[in-house]
Amino acid sequence: MRVRPYTPDDAGAIASILNHEIEHGVAHFGTEPTTAEAVRAELAALPPRYPALIAEDDSGVLGFCKSSPWKPRGAYAWSVETTVYVRAGAHGRGVGRALYGELFAALRGLGYRTAIGGITLPNDASVALHEAMGMRPVARLPHMGYKSGAWHDVGYWAVDLNPSMADRAPGAFGD
Known about the structure:
Blueprint: E1 2-5, H1 11-24, H2 36-44, E2 52-57, E3 60-69, E4 79-86, H3 95-110, E5 114-121, H4 124-132, E6 136-147, E7 150-160
Parallel strand pairs: 4-5
Antiparallel strand pairs: 1-2, 2-3, 3-4, 5-7, 6-7
Helix pairs in contact: 1-2
């Protein structure tokens, strides 16, 4: 397995992964299939300081992860939201850990302080992945989405990427 930066050529494979979850799961709250063009546009709109990564092997794309702004207000500049999805049939092979490991290293290097990820609950596998990556539960929002005939809570897990920043103001982003 290889982890590498996303390229626009990966948009079709990402759409396929997302569409499987949209149609058969609850981890993605989309209710209509997405397209490669929509994925490409969403990722192109992210500034370069928000990495997106692909895990692949000889069979193709196994999963992807991305980072995005947590909130638009200036004081949140050092916080980042993370998302990871693994292709159906590729779970349990370390794909999520490989992706998040590379993503968190990149985010640390970029100077982010906190990463936060949301999980549709219940989802024991996703909780286990996030906690294996050092993330801890910080919030649970009840009844946030209705999908597949049921209301679903969303939990948030966070990790302190750069604890050395605790005793100093961050200065300009990336300092």
